[in-house]
Records
---
Amino acid sequence: MAKVLQMKNISKFFPGVKALDNVDFSLDSGEIHVLAGENGAGKSTLIKILSGAYQKSEGEIFLHGQKVEINNPIKAKKLGINVIYQELELALNMTVMENIFLGKLPLSNRAFGTVDFNKIYQETKNILNKLGLDFTPNALVGDLRVADQQMVEIAKALLGNPEILIMDEPTSSLCDSEIERLFTVMNDLKKADKSIIFISHRMEELWEVGDKISILRSGKMITTESLDEIDENGVTTAMVGKEIKNKFPKQKLNIGDEVLKVENLSSNKGIKNISFKVNAGEILGISGLVGSGRTEILRAIFGADKIEEGEIYIKSKRVKINSPNDAVKYGIGLIPEDRKQQGLVLDLNVKDNITLSILKKLAKSGVLNEKKMKEVSKEYIDKLSIKTPNMNFKSKLLSGGNQQKVVLAKWLCAKSNVFLFDEPTRGIDVGAKVEVYELMIELAKNGAAIIMVSSEMPEILNMSDRILVMHEGEITGKFKAEDAKAENILNCAMGGELSGNK
Amino acid sequence: MVTSNHSTNTNNHLSKLKNFTYKYIYLVIILIFVVALTILSPHFFSYNNFINIFRQVSVNFILGVALTYVIITAGIDLSVGSILAFAGVTAGLFLRTGGNFIVAILIALLIGSICGLINGVLVAKAKLAPFIATLGMMSIARGLALVVTSGNSITIDNANYTFLGSGNIYSIPMPVIIAIIVLIISSFILRKTWFGRYLYAIGGSHEASRLSGIKVDKLIIFTYTISGFLSGVAAVVLTARLWSAPPIAGQGYELDAIAAAVIGGASLMGGKGKILGTLYGAMVIGIIRNGLNLLGVSSFLQQVVIGVIIILAVFLDKMRNKNE
Ligand SMILES: Nc1ncnc2c1ncn2[C@@H]1O[C@H](COP(=O)(O)OP(=O)(O)OP(=O)(O)O)[C@@H](O)[C@H]1O
Ligand SMILES: [Mg+2]
């Protein structure tokens, strides 16, 4: 097979960070090449260099044996390199077709500069059909679900018919059927001799689509191998630098008294008649399809959506939660699905984000207690091993997994007692996943009640004590972990009969 | 060997100079203006003229501080000039009835704060776009100022009151002293208090701040109230300096105040802004105005120059941020 791309001795320095250190990487035509590594290993940095978003500090890039300088994203596109970034980059106020054709709108009349909307409508429709998507080209991107937005991003990248397609965690916000569809498209591209670089933290899918894998650790290329010759254990060991024995460190804990009880809860965002309770030391998993109202349960309890009916009890005392501020007072913490928009203030530094909800409490007669803030931040940066050059580092520049840990740190230091996790390990590397699970267990041991919404079946099955399944805003299934089976959960998630024992 | 060493040394010096320039670019630019104007106009470089500049700058600076607070939360306040006029004339009317000057000051501050409070409620609770809410208030406050005075200036002759605008302490004009007090307090609040830090958080992300338990609505209401309060302070300083309270006072001041904040590095997208930056912005505008006056440049042409300066200054700030 012909080498399409070779990157040689690539290094990238940021102030205070060596993100890439002498990295070699090459790509054959018709190959799906997985790029793996822990959070902050430098995966996104490497592909950003390839896509012209960053400039390499050292090294050389060859396309078909020709040395090239990729100074900007436009140059990369001209060279046939298209990227789907980890952070969605769509114009939310524009339609699907406008987004897909952004920057290359075909004109119906050159002199007047009028856009040929018929043409982009038709072509967009074709692409959407191919991807099996059911929204129209006229839909506003801002109105779509995150998963659909992700698909628009993919459609946009497919449009230029690129030779090299780079996908930075495209599956992190997709459900299983959407992922299957994406993999079909990827395999079609592969048959057409295109090359794909694929980044994902979801282990099981690497073998499903990938041909080869390159593994980065702390900015260094550890190994490149055929996926036939390496197993999951080998990959995680290369990524983390040590073997991970137990992917789900769940322990049987003593279940304590009731901490949170919800009765007949309905909110203005479509959840209906939700009742359940969570005890101290317990992890309640909530499963269901995307859009089934899982997130909305958490948001209602947290006071982020308006509760229309129903009651919430904390430690058997009825409480009124009208705003997140109330929820925080009652010791509830929300780790949201969309950590960049909702979990963090990206422009603030790590220290300010960690202490965000207790700033006021730490202050003395209104004046910030910087010393205390530093102590607290240091404590949790160490405890959660957050990888950051220092605590004054802008959160925006942290890798995804480390951002998640900062959000967690915020609620840990607020001494929350009820933790609402929404997709807690999305976009987090295997090592960090285990760390997050261990943290959950640690919290449970200390008497916290935990609710965990997750789309990952293994996570739901292995980490929960009890499981709720949602369908169209209602609970359609309740299981004890030991009785739960994936197919029963799926059945309930599709709206099947209420099953399982209470 | 020796030569190469030497050349890296000069390189080092150069980059140090560059770093220094970027760090103190505010001072460097002001220095350039001062030197240029000193060469061009014999009257520019004198104690009296500097005092004059400071006195003129103080009102714009105080309003600039008001805008800095609001802009940090990703808002805008177009009503500061009108609130200034309305607060000024109510204080003036009260003084005309023979009222006590301290009460007059309190009235100006209260009127300003109430107008600001209304702005805040419209933005935070009624969810109006800040531009629209304060545009409305801009018209309302101006209209009220004109109505209560029937369009006439109110003459002020209470010596205690006018001292605040025209008096000196140790030959430092009162407006400058008041501006310095505003500088110290507002800068302290932004840098050292939880309230200040929360404003930056809110400007960075409303939603993330709300979901962290911050009472975003309350703080936004408070921010606009501060802006109104500072407009009241500016009203006292200006009317006391003029010995009168014209209902058309402060027209267009909101634009200068926005310019001062933005030249000083505040971002209209929110989350960024510093009081010292705003001071620099106000000083740049003030020095240029003063210099152009001394040089006899027509006020028409002055507008053009000021516009160019605003654009240049913000552009330079962008470059500086890139380099950091
Ligand atoms: N613009 C920047 N300035 C400074 N440091 C940066 C910048 N961008 C990335 N970094 C740092 O470079 C390192 C590599 O980050 P990168 O985003 O490439 O990680 P990643 O492998 O994609 O991780 P993840 O799986 O979490 O997305 C991290 O330590 C990160 O903090
Ligand atoms: Mg990444």
Note: The radius of gyration of chain B is 21 Å.
---
Amino acid sequence: MSFTVPSHLESELDEITTHYPVKRSASLMFLHALQEHFGYVSKDAVEWTARKLGLQPINVYELVTFYPMFRQEPLGKTHVKVCRTLSCALQGSGELRERFCSKLGLDPHAHAPQTTPDGKFTVEFVECLASCGTAPVVLVNEELHHKVSSADADAILQKGKAA
Amino acid sequence: MSAPAQPAPAPAPQAPPPVETMTVKVNGKTVQVPKTHPDWQGKPQPATMLQAARCAGVDIPHYCYHDKLPVAGNCRMCLVEFGTPMMDPATRKPVLNEDGSPKIAKSVLPYEPGTPRGAIACATPISPGMEIYADSKATLQMREAVLESLLINHPLDCPICDQAGECKLQEYSVQHGQAGSRFVEAKVHKPKAVDLGPRIVLDDERCVLCTRCIRFSKDIAGDDALGIVNRGSYNTISAFETGKFDNNYTLNTVDLCPVGALTSKDFRFKMRVWFLKESKSVCTSCGTGCNITIGSREGVVHCYEPRENDAVNGPWMCDSGRLNYKWIGRADRLREVLVRGTRSTWSAALQDLTVRLSKAPAGSVAVVASSRQTTEELYLLKKLAARTGATTDSVAREGEADRLLVAADRNPNSNGARLTGISFTEAGIRIPEIAAAIEAGTVKTLVVFGEDVTKHGIPAATLAKLETLFVSDILPNATTALATHLLPGAAHAEKRGTFVNVKGRLQKFMKAVEAPGDARPEWEFLHELVHGVTGQNGYSTIEGLFNQMAREVPAFAGLEWAKIGDTGVDVKI
Amino acid sequence: MPEQFKLITKHIDELGYTPDIACYLRHGGYAGLKKALATPVRELAEGKKLSPQEVVREDVKASGLRGRGGAGFSAGLKWSFVDRRSGKPIYLICNADESEPGTFKDRQIIHKDPHQLVEGMIISCWANDVKLAYIYIRGEMPEGARLLNQALKEARENGFLGKNILGTGFDLEIHVHRGAGAYICGEETGLIESLEGKRAYPRIKPPYFPAVLGLYMCPTIVNNVETLCHVTHIVNMGAAEYAKLGTPNNTGTRIVSLSGDVMRPGYYEIQVGKVTLGELIHDANFGGGLRPGRTLKAIIPGGSSSKVLKAGEVFKLNRKGADGQMAKVDVPLLDLPYDFDSLQQAGTMSGSSAVIVLDDSRSMVETLGNLSEFYAHESCGQCTPCREGALWLAKATHRLAHGEGRKADADYLSHIAQNIQGRTICAFGEAASWPVLSFVKKFRDEFEAKGAADEAARAQGAGPVHGVKMAASPNHH
Ligand SMILES: Cc1cc2nc3c(=O)[nH]c(=O)nc-3n(C[C@H](O)[C@H](O)[C@H](O)COP(=O)(O)O)c2cc1C
Ligand code: SF4
Ligand code: SF4
Ligand code: SF4
Ligand code: FES
Ligand code: FES
């Protein structure tokens, strides 16, 4: 399958490139946009970005592997990011993540992000989401959930299954 | 108190501008350090602690720093304890000790004043009165801690590592190491034997992430092909696609790698480096004349490595030049003296040639030499030609120049040929003339050195018309096959001599191995031949020969073999 | 009883207060910008004159404003270091990476009052001759990025941004740039590299001080979100009035992020130094005390990187006595005024003003295990001591927390940490080692007891002793 970036996205990215005196600066914004559109950052996306910004593919690949938000495999439709760091851990984010995993049949102890076979969910631990006052917090796709209880977790799963 | 009388120094031709210096102390020794030092691009920059230490003869261990690469400051191996003169905050004057010397404030952690704060010597500029403690207890502790960190995830398989003996990790840990690491956790595992490119293999577990290879590829070779993937302790040197790291300079990264992470496929596990004999030489694959060290053992050349020369190649060389050594040991090397296809002896063949050349009427001889020959050989050939009124030329060999080292001129000694009068502004311009003269029957004797003239304008059919085809070469070709007199010559690695590179740098090179069979360095037998034909006495040593040439060839006036350093001298071209 | 002092958070969480420009203007927004742009030339005593921009820069210095991002460095002084003679453009970057564990104050401003940040930035840019500025916002705040973009658009439409701002001839563009989940992007030179489209590898200093060789090797100012917001208030109030807030050398207000074992976690804006740690934790206006039946065990006072303080500790602080002389005074932990200098004198720092409270139910070994996992995950890996040391610390604390400890691990951990702090390219080295050094130093008994118990259990042939389970690290790679 050939890799095509829709023209509206390409022109959006061309506009973003003008925000910077040096094109390379737009790399992260490109990767965000491509990941949003394709669901992950493929090798093609890396090469496309490099071509657009006049870089070598390794320059872009270095970023994909450095910044934890970028993924090289397709993600689940509902992406559950449970905060692992101290304030959330103190309020039980470890148990929360285990609950998500066991309910979805994922390994509750594996560290790396896991995606359900049906592609509906990806569950992972992330570091402090800067909302420690409402711990434990869970970022579901782009929506931050505060003070997440077991019941809230189940509701998140329910919604994701229906999606 | 009178100083011993000094003879007034002769006024220097151009007095160098006075160097501004700064006084600092290194390990208690006062040194004057030039205020600026050239950076990796040669631009003057404020002198660093590392450079100051060098001025004091102290080598501060380092991994990521390299004189010819941008500074990275990442390995932290060069951390040193230091102090600066204490200032009275009120008067802004230095505080003095009882003996009048300035009081030194050692640098300490701002939040833990009892603990020394090191600075990286490779990137920290010196300041007046600074004291650098390159071997203090605190410095050694910092260095040992960095080594310990580098070793915790290192495979520690020196006995099977290609770099053993040349490895800076091994060397420094022998110097500083502690008995056994305290590390009791599980090691991080990384890819091993990664096929980085056609000539390079990478062992990421051995890598200390100094980024020298990355910086070299990007900033020197202009090929931004290497990078680091992953993060933190999982950082891994990588190319985007394995196998594609293939610019013409990749093997320099093997030289640069301070540990055994990058290895040359050509040289991998072939030979322990300390078994190799090293000989100073010059690459012959193009007119740049990169300085090299030839590694040989038991008469066999095993590798070329760049030898630093800022006037020519810096510390680098190209891969194609580096790998172009295998022909020296080829099985089909010419090893016998042949006269009309029959094995002969040097004395018989030279005797016969002497007679023929002596008797040859003026204008009946032509010479096609090679700009791969040494200047001394070309000089002798020119003498021979002059005696017989021969037309001379050499063969041009052009390619594409790159932006770093490779010259368009693929002959190592085109300027040598020009300066000795063998060739003219444009090499090879007279070859058609020579071919025509053979066809016309005017030229009956052709002397060919180191070139297959059938590929350069004198076809085999033309050569067949000659009475005498006197050829000297190293490897067989269509011209050697037609030779009436074939003298086996020596590769540059098998003799001494000089080349003049495209920019007019005259450089000498040393012998690494013996020539095979009966083969001899060309200058030796040419010397005998010239003696025989011209009756002039010559020199039977390369030193004498060179010095004689220097007296006769204007461009070399004033030069002496013994005074040409290892990195050569500039001559006017 | 001390109360909040709402300067930055004045309207935040106010019923009906929305992030759009109309609402901001209704509440007096952009008056500071207009006032700044109308600043008259100031005549000084010796016949010297300060240009309007210099006046605002001087006022920021005079206000005593210290950076709210972590280091607490004088904002005015930082601005004065900017190389204004290089002929190169000067850039300003707002550090909105907010990722120091425990910190969630910038989030409030960005999401609930974005124009306050935009106004502060425009004034700061104008005062520093900046024509192009960026807001570097952490990737996990997509909504924040949208709100900021919307705010910038509105500001442009209202003539506060873009060409010829409010007819003064001043041109400025501000763009939002998103990070992608790396804590080290909060470190200013890592942030600059990241904004240049590279891995966020902090730069060596010297020579790469942002004020001289920053973004694109041009002079660059990096300030925290909250710091930039204060600039508007300094302009509005005047430097002298502003400096009356807070305490000497610790002026103004600060938003404290309070989390952990308190009844009322949240963000509270206080006058710097006018509220004590004890009040922050216990007063009904603030933390509202610990959970019922619990006692205080420890406080991490300035973000996860700051050195932990132990319940019951007493510190020697320099205080001006009644006679006007400086003297060392004993100050118990809970009486420590929450400000830059007091916490520094107590051997720690106010950092990003994030207070994490730990009660007696918590294991210090596991708490440290959690933090060390964070630093191991976030080390950029550029320099040796941190790259190798941060993961080493995490592995060791994890082992100790999970029943494979040794009595010697307390010293082992301290030694590893000692070999990181002060030896790295950036202050992350301190951030990763300070928690370890302070936890082990102050709770050595607990670390040794855990190690000893594990050793004893192993000697008995029992399996690892597991404590209360706490989350282990994500490992993306
Ligand atoms: C490891 C590390 C992480 C940091 N993270 C942040 C951050 O998330 N936000 C922030 O404003 N400053 C952060 N800083 C501080 C910045 O480097 C810088 O000092 C600050 O943005 C300057 O702004 P200020 O002077 O207004 O405080 C961090 C520093 C370090 C060493
Ligand atoms: S491969 Fe060698 S040169 Fe490259 S970073 Fe690793 S240790 Fe340094
Ligand atoms: S650049 Fe020329 S002289 Fe140098 S190594 Fe390559 S071929 Fe040899
Ligand atoms: S201290 Fe850590 S985060 Fe900072 S540069 Fe070094 S490895 Fe990176
Ligand atoms: S610790 Fe979870 S949001 Fe900060
Ligand atoms: S040599 Fe690596 S930091 Fe100086």
Note: Chain C has three domains: 21-243, 253-359, 364-459.
---
Amino acid sequence: MGTIKNISRRGFVKVVGLASGGLILACNTSIFSDKEKAPENLIDFNPNLFIQLNSDGTLILIASRSEMGNGVRTSLTSVIADEMEADWNKVIVKQATGDTKYGDQNTDGSRSVHYLYETMRQMGAIAKAMLISAAAQTWNVTENECSAEHHFIVHTSGKKIAFGNLVEKAKTLEIPTNFKLKNPKNFKFIGKNLKSVDVKEYNNGSAIFGLDKRIPNMKFVAIQRCPVTFGTVKSFDKTATLKIAGVIDVIEIPRVEKPFGALGGVAVIASNTWAAFKGKDALKVEWNYGDNKGYDSEKYMNQLTSNVHKNGKVGKESGNINRAFKNATKIVESTFQLPHLAHAPMEVPNAVAWVQGDTCEVWAPTQDPQTARKEVVDFLETTEDKVIINVTFLGGGFGRKSKPDYIVEAVAVSKAINAPVQVVWTREDDIKHGYYHTVSAQFMKASLDNNGNVTGWLHRFALPSIVSTFSPGVDYAAGFEISSASGVPFEIDNLKVEVGQAPAHVRIGWLRSVINIPHGFSINVFADELAHAARKDPLEFRLQLIGNDRIEDTQDEIKYNTARLKNVLKIAAKNAEWGKQLPEGHAYGLAVHYSFYSYVASVVEVSVINNKVRVHNVFTAIDCGTVVNRNTVKAQMEGSAIFGMSLAFYGKITAKNGAIEQSNYHDYKMVRMNEAPKVYVEIVESTERPTGVGEPGVPVIAPAIINAIFKATGKRYYNLPLADFGLV
Amino acid sequence: MITLRINGEKYKIDVAPEMPLLWAIRDIIGLTGTKYGCGIGVCGSCKVLIDNAPVQSCMIPVSFAEGKNVITIEGVSENLQLLQQSWSDLNVPQCGFCQPGQLIAATALLDKNNNPTEAEIDEAMLGNICRCGTYQRIKNAINRTVELKNQN
Ligand code: FES
Ligand code: FES
């Protein structure tokens, strides 16, 4: 039972593979292990990798992307269910393991729905077409007379048959090459508010995050790593550690010199997490600190700043900036400094691994199970079929959990001690050994003519590149880190973008909205400063600066449309009633930014009273094309406002003598309930292709706050976090 | 041997008396709904109720809980259940990781105050970080629970 016969998978691969732009679906076996197949008395129908319909009507849908608060287990599966006309209450979502048969599973870059929307629709439509054929054959009528409705196939005469009762017949059918997608007008789930499929498990504590995974005989492991990035163990004394009750052993694990390799260090193996943590604290380790020992954030910021105050490498040049500056009525220039940030997801990095011979099974909160599998395969020098990566719930990711160094650590320890282990990072480990968001200095200079029009725009920045993590020694920003500056959507004749030198001394990684944090900040604050210099209202000025409706000539398949950009700004301003009288000490500030192919604007209301800043209201408008789950989009905008506020208020990671100075949520602070504003979200109605939602809400928040503070006080801040100025 | 009463069940465990309650609950007893977030009492992920008071279980030794009534997110209480329903109705969780702690903190609030003001909600929830930023929905869900209770 359960084997799939007479289904032309090859035909299926051809149809879907081509139409979806390269999703690989080659698969000759069921995705379900035997114990996950339908129970004995049920028959199941697996038309494709993502769907299993059981004869009792249960519909198991596969989520191939990771769930970390992005709502992806709900949104992707709801698209299949909508096309199938399924009953949402009969859906069970199952998480895919890391396997190339699902296509790209990397859950970052705000693109899960963007990439998979069409494919998921096709998956659902194919299954529905087969159920309709099965019903038509059963009734001996034509398919045209049949339609799908709420988990039934219905005939024009009124008779109907449940999906589950068609399984036996559907299994015998060929996969159709001809199937129709629904008219979007008839969507039942897409574009509506759908509750997370996992909400109950989250609320009663039964959701299994990586940290909650338990397997028999599993040992708990904590690792002491060198305070300086890439330092190595010289020697260690484990005497005190071994005296701690519950500590079993102490071993050294070597550094794996790869972008996602283990940092290496001394691992304490124990019978519970607490003993492992205590044992780690009791270790005495001597380190070879290595080349990064001199990393000092204060000195480094001075170096970056001087690098942006002289000419850099040209990233983009149009017109003649020198002439514009020479002929200017007014010149404005400013320098911006932003520190490193840490992801600090609520759930620390952790992984369970069990190596047995040349096979290995992992359970971990990972955004990218395929990359994790590849790293494990390389480390164990084994083959892909020997490694299973199970994806648990992620207690937040924000980009940290797409880097599987912590999984490699767990595999290394399990292999060394020949037992299943759970490696748990302490919060201190998480703050001190991350893949940090880049640190940056930026210099902006612009010229205005006597009508207050911007005639020249120079943007020069220096920041250690993400590429340095992959190619050590790279010390200039890469193309993808320049485009958010060079693609600034302003109609200015003379524009120049330059890049300064910035060597990396820690692992640089991507953090929710990545390069758009520094660029969204400097561009939005500087544009506001120019509005003031031109004595114009910031909203009017900005709309003018963006200029005519046009499609920007980007290399991307999806084009940048300035009409959509202006539209979100107008909506946010309208919802805030931009221009209205606010209470004493209160003011509005705005920012607008395009990232991950989506358009977002926010107007924030702050008050500055007794030199303390409060954010009261945030009015956000987003255009992310077709909306799959309104609830998720809204939640992501609400969350982005808090994430943006946390970095504006408190976000700052610094190094001294090569070691990170912060350690936990008391000195790397987060916005809390009493500081949280009201967030009002409007989502633009659109039939364009769906685009990013998880990240694009972040970059606008900090600059909008700065602009509002300026409006309230006349004082402009160019550096973050605001805590450094005693404002929060 | 230490005897704990958690969610009405008795557990006899053999651990050092200074082991933080959090790890006894998670690693020894095996109830994993209570979360580790910081280990220093500043995030609230590990909150449990001890004799109805919200406590950061990472900060207190397991011996302190002996002879007391411990309620975790897996437990049952009238206010907890009502709050869980509102949490679900308003789609509060994003990643969900902080939510057990948030729900415990909110339960403790409603246990002693059946009509909290906004400032009282802020005060009660101040110790709980949500990195995903679900604060607005948490507040709405608490208010909704209060409204539903007061209707009945
Ligand atoms: S883990 Fe106890 S307060 Fe953070
Ligand atoms: S829901 Fe993710 S930390 Fe609160």
Note: The longest strand of chain B covers residues 2-6.
